[in-house]
Amino acid sequence: MKETMNTRAKRLQRWWLRHFPIDRVLAQKVFKCTVNSTVAFIFCLIPEVRKHLGAQPAMLPLISVMAHPGRRISGTIQAMMFCLTGLVLGLSYALFGRFLAQRCLGHNWKHLTEDEQYANHFVRYESALAVLAVFETFMLFFHGWMRSLSHHYFAMVFPLFLVVHFAFLDPLDDPISATTKAYTVPFYLGIAMSLFFNLVLFPEFGSTYLGNTTIDTMNLIHKAIDDSVNFFISIDLKESQSLYRKSPESLSKLLKSKPTIHNKVSTCSTVLHECIYEISYSYVSPTQLKPIIETFKSCSMYINGLINACQLEFTLLSRDENREGDLLQIKTDKEIAYAHFERFDRVLRKLRPSIYNLHKILSESVYLTKILLAHAYDVDLSRAKGSEIFKDSDEIVRYKNKKDLPTDFCIDERKNTLQKALLDFDREFREELLKSEIDFLRPKDEMFLLSSFLMNFKETTNFVINLLDHSKEVHTTRSAREAKGWLRGKSVWFTFLHSFQSFKIWIRGTYSKTNPINENEGLQGGISTQQNKSIGAVATRRPSVAEEDLLLQQAESDKNLRDLKETAELPLPATLSSNLESDNSYPFKKKEGTTFESLNYYFTACFIKTNRFLKRSKAHFRFGFQVAIALMLASFPMFVPKTRDWYVKFHGAWVGFVCILCVEPSVGDTFWSFFLRMLGVVIGSSWAYLSYAAGQHQSDPYLETVITAIGAAPGFYYFLGTPYVKAAIIGIISIYIVLLAAAIPSSIHDTILTAWAKRCFAVGYGGGVALIVQLIMFPSKARDELNQEIAFVCGSISELQLLYASGLEGEPLKVSLSEQKYKRMAKVSQSARAALSRADAYKGLARQEPRLKGEYTELGKVFTQVIFILRQILDRIDNAALLRKQNGSAIIEELNSVVYPYRRQIIASLCCLMRAIQEAFLNKTPLPQFLPSPRIAQRRLINMVRRALRENYSGQLSNGNPISKSSETQDNDINDEHEIMINFKRQNESEKTRHATYIHEFALKERFLTWNASTVSFEEIIEYVEELCNLTKILVGVNEFKYGFLSRPLYEDWAAEAATGFDDFIQGKRPKKQQRPPSSREPDISESVASSAASSLSGGEQDPVALQPDDSEPPLNLARIASHKAGNNTGGLPGSFRKRAFSIGFVSDQVSGPNGLSKHKTLGDTDSDIEDDEDTSDDELPLALKKILTGNKTKNE
């Protein structure tokens, strides 16, 4: 019986934790907030205390909920500062508005009530209310403007609204002292109580949390490094053959760790900035962790590179399964699938022991670093996890408490050991590759994959070495201070606003550019730890200057003010301009400006700046007007003399309070807020009615207080631990407001039932007005915002490609990626990632909007894939840019004079594709007809690099044998490529005669290996761009060619088919032909075919095709290849060539899905082909055949 009860109890516990997850920290926060609000409620019930609170005692529990103690101390201090700033500004503004309104009433405003003013001085009374209405309107516009500018300002402008809105409802005969007391004492007392309970009950210091977060982040980084290295070198081995104790993790877990590490690194940076709001007392300052946390970002990029290499290796292993598939599914052909795994595995087998040895020492060094930091910042040592994947992991010393720590950690010895292991690994790696065949070292997919892993692995090792240096400094500081004793060693660290940068962070609230904080997270405590944030997410608005400041194609279109000072001049030839300058006879020289010209300049400059400001602030103006119009419609009776008294007695302030909380920047967000707040108000008001009834109409206030606390605790759980912040916060406030409206004696004399009804009416009226205004006045749809964010990311990717590609005009470069360009790339990448975070939020809000064009579920799935693909592209670009910044690029720095046309073609094709996708999302127009993929251009670049290496490094190989021409891949291109190579040979002829360079030495340079790693990243980017183009076709459609060269095979193809089977040809049936399955080819031959096909498509005279097919293969007709459509197996084309050679524009039926979606139609037009099936017109026939049919019809008639 006991076992059955225990089993049921465990099941109940698991069910409860699954649906209502809670940990110790969250439970402590809920307890603190409940105690704080309950004490504030008790103060309102005590008459002796209530008379010192002024005319608005109910503001005390309200502000205790808004400035709750459920934050860390630093977050509470920050919220207090913003709240106090809003209170001071709001009270000053309200007192000034009331002062002007009282002046309108005349000198007897103190002696006459509002009813007497209405009866005796109606015009003056009306004028006074008009003044209040004007002040209210400007305040509301300012409130909306600041909220649109940054959600960070909500904590400041909401108290400002409370003070002004409620103060304007107070009688005009109240003196300034009474108004000041009513809106200072409750607010300041509530803020002080929150700070007190935050410090007394389970205090959470930001510096302590910073240490815990740093160790947790390093645990994730450590585990990701171990799992990725184990996966890469052990995925194809049996468990008995593996060097590790544990089998490799699944690829899905590795891929899921990438966003987890990214979010954890962003959280770590946010906590570091949050610590500037508190004063800490410890041995070591929290700011000493800043250089360590800043290096986490680059380390996360290297880890992304390691995981991407594992993904490519897995694709290479499973290529046989992935090559064939259903044409109805969108499957992009992977370049890595054409690599030789046997050749790759042969080299990896030799390098496996070296990688394992370095990995083991690296893992031990990371664990030592975690122990040093945990000891320095008083973090529990058991929080630092050690590696468990090695066979001798049990022999490694694990530290569980401070007593086990040694006196000397031998950090320098550990660092030297790691550096020596890295040098040995580099030496062994080069020695093994020097022994390998020359064909492996040439630019090929196998070498690209190996270089990607090895370069990221080496850079990760360098990161750990730097981490040891920083950890040594922190540990030395901690040891020196600890030796002085507890009293002298610890210091008070004032990190508050220690620099101008921290002051800007405090003003703007921009902690994390990639994961900006929204209103919900700001109300909860600054940093969200929820797993399902998208359920109740509130999207943050993109900064107004982001698009103009980051994207050059738009920023350069603006007129520069400096151009106004210069006279427009036509460009002159060099000889003519030199003669004019020498003769000093240039008649169009700019003369000294007159007063009129200077005034004209300043007026023009003023107009340009005004126009730029209005364009940048369009969204802020819109939301400001929405807030002002909605609140004035909801609260206009308070400014009308006839309805003001009725509005006050009906608790009209509640209407405005609910309305301003429901207004959000988008329609979906407003609708969701209205629903949540209506639910919260009904539940909270009903619980207040229950508490009042349990207290037997104030006869038992103790039971009433207990019941209220019981209802507030679940509300605070939903407030602090779930995404439903908006419903929880207004539900808790409704409990106290409704109860105090009936309990506190006032001039309104409400019963609990009437208070409940008025509160429900307030949410219905105020929320309904907010929703109607959002739908009618300047509506902002979440779907439109989603499209704009995705378009912004596409433009950012195009900009990143241009910044990454240096030397596209063939100019010589010593540095392939300058520090200035890299900083700009980092800025653009951060803005793009922040836009993707906003797109995720808008995607969730779009499901909540009313839609007339059908269900949004299918579109939501497509947008999810689009966002995922854009994130993958950004990961690859960031990793490639960081590797190029650290090591350079041999191709750009040494061979750019030869390969720059091919590099320029790739970048141009990628930028054109991303630009077309960007415009398609912005304008909701179909994609153009012809969108060639950069895949062929990328293959041509690789072939050209091979050829350049063969021509430039044609000396003896390291093994003493010359390169045999039979083993070379003969690449052919058009005549201009041949001329470039001739010039290149002449430039390097003198150098070749002086010394012989081995191709091994060049192929093993750091810069060349970096180019290999970046090349495999670019191949993946091209594949992802192709998938993105196909998904865009599903969303917006595509303009297909109906006639012409690209719409069908050439004349000889369809004419032959029409002659042999005219009926089948008219009906679109494919004639039966005897086809033999194509035999497998070497990837080099396929690549050469693809390169030659691309050259043939460019037109002009062509060189002979340098293709040596097998005897069993028939010669290929390049004319048929160029006109052949994907998915059509006629012509005997090899399967590998069909998938690799053709661009996106040739794919016809690849994007069709099981739901009837295709690139010819969108989800809103899935049944548009019903009528077309009955159409018997010959619109789809070729033009020549239509003429024949038309002529036959004419003759018959």
Question: Could you characterize the architecture of this molecule?
Answer:
One of its GO terms (cellular component) is membrane. Residues 955-969 have a biased composition (Polar residues). Its main location: membrane. This is ZYRO0F16500p. It holds the Pfam family FUSC_2. With 1197 residues, the chain is mainly alpha-helical. It has 5 domains: 26-204, no CATH class; 206-508, no CATH class; 643-779, no CATH class; 782-1036, Methane Monooxygenase Hydroxylase, Chain G, domain 1; 1041-1073 and 1167-1197, no CATH class. A two-stranded antiparallel sheet has the order 1-2. Helix 4 (59-66) packs antiparallel against helix 31 and helix 6 crosses helix 7. The chain is globular. It starts with a helix and ends with a helix.
